[in-house]
Amino acid sequence: MFTLSDSIEDYLKKLLSLSSRYYVDIRRYELSRKFFCAPSQINYVLSSRFSPERGYLVESRRGGKGYIRIYRLEPLQSRTWMEMVEQLTSADFNPVKAMQFLKRGSEEKIITQREARLLETMLKDDLYNGLPVMKAQVHALQSKLFKAAIAEVLKECY
Amino acid sequence: MFTLSDSIEDYLKKLLSLSSRYYVDIRRYELSRKFFCAPSQINYVLSSRFSPERGYLVESRRGGKGYIRIYRLEPLQSRTWMEMVEQLTSADFNPVKAMQFLKRGSEEKIITQREARLLETMLKDDLYNGLPVMKAQVHALQSKLFKAAIAEVLKECY
DNA sequence: ATGTATATGGTCAGTAAAGGTCAAACATGC
DNA sequence: GCATGTTTGACCTTTACTGACCATATACAT
User: Fold this and answer.
1) Is the CB of B45 under 7 A from strand C?
2) Nearest residue to C12 (CA, C1')?
3) Which among B119, B148, B153 has CB closest to A127?
């Protein structure tokens, strides 16, 4: 059930939570040896699981003494989070990205897990099957529903 | 008269009842081999016999190390709620009726007010404007979304 | 300073391993 | 014969992972 990527993700998150600072430094090659995988696997994990949408920031330096530094970003205020969601224009809206926002929102207690799951429902493409519309239109609709629902949920915060 | 689908259904239900958890994980291809059938047969069984209306919920992950997870929903506390939802079949589904259910649900503390507002958003017809579909189709979609979302909440009754 | 070797990390296309969809064929009961 | 439910296969999408090739920083000798 658990993929290599999942294990590496867990390992890095554990490192972060054990660290007294906001970031951890790793060596790409070393880490890849630890998990018996290709170095580029590390990049895959970083880009699929430590994206800004999910509340992380990655910086790195090449060459001798090179490193990769992973920051856990400051938890967002619900207002900021909502603004970020609203700024997703329907052009760059896609369910995967939206899902990442949900994950961050629930991790940072802006919305509850149940609310996250409810919102996730709107993003499940298969519910929209059978409609005589193209995928882009489905995404546009999802985007509208998604944003409207989040606004509703957070309404009382203002 | 037992069909292949019936056997697969039985098999999965047995798995569920033997499991100490409230879900089971399967691999689609493996299962299809076990029953000497096409992989898509499994999807047919899942959609015809393990729908939310029947008290089940299915989630899955594609790609390497993918899986299908089948949840058995707990009917106890939520039986009445479930029955109400079942009445909202897409034929006679209408947003007004659904809204009334929501109201009752939040009064009876099955869902929070925030959740009720979230779900209400799905029922707002004007969000669906611009789609080249008839009202009936919009309602069918709303019904699907609504039911899937409710099932999501019920999943947590354990 | 300059050049070169060494040590990092980055990118991207390709492959593999899942699961999803849909329409058409088939079967069964009325 | 028709309606309904079952089964299949061709084609699609997503996710995980690797390797060849690329870019950049440091170390060190000259």
Assistant:
1) no
2) A40
3) B148
Banded model confidence at residue A83, pLDDT cuts 50, 70, 90: confident
Kindly list the strands in the beta sheet with B56-61, ordered across the sheet, starting from the edge strand earlier in the chain: B23-26, B67-72, B56-61
Asked if A101 contacts A77 with a C-beta cutoff of 8 angstroms, the reply is no
Q: Which residues pair with B23 in a beta bridge?
A: B71
Q: What are the boundaries of each domain within chain B?
A: 4-72, 79-154
Looking up tokens 């189709």 gives B137
With vertex at residue B126, the alpha carbon angle to CA B140 and CA A103, rounded to the nearest 5 degrees, is 75
DSSP B133: S
Q: Is B154 helix (H, G, I), strand (E, B) or coil?
A: helix
CA distance A146 to B122: 9
Q: Is A74 helix (H, G, I), strand (E, B) or coil?
A: coil
Residue A132 Cβ < 7 Å to strand C: no
Which residues lie below 8 Å from residue A93, measured CB to CB, with a gap of 6+?
A139, A140, A142, A143, A146
**Distance of alpha carbon A106 from the chain centroid:** 11
Report yes or no: B118 at the A interface, CB cutoff 8 Å.
Answer: yes
Q: What is the pLDDT, as a whole number, of residue B113?
A: 87
Residue A158 has pLDDT above 50, yes or no: no
Long-range contact set of residues B20-28: C-beta below 8 Å, sequence gap at least 24 = B22/B71, B22/B72, B22/B74, B22/B158, B23/B69, B23/B70, B23/B71, B23/B72, B24/B69, B24/B70, B25/A1, B25/B67, B25/B68, B25/B69, B25/B70, B26/B67, B26/B68, B26/B69, B26/B70, B27/B66, B27/B67, B27/B68, B28/B66, B28/B68
d(Cα B107, Cα A114) in Å, to the nearest integer?
A: 18
In B35-71, which ranges are continuous DSSP H helix? 39-49
Q: Report which of residues A68 and A107 the model is more confident about.
A: A68
Give pLDDT < 50 ranges for chain B: none
Instruction: Give the CATH H-level superfamily of domain B4-72.
Output: Transcriptional regulator CtsR, winged HTH domain (3.30.56.130)
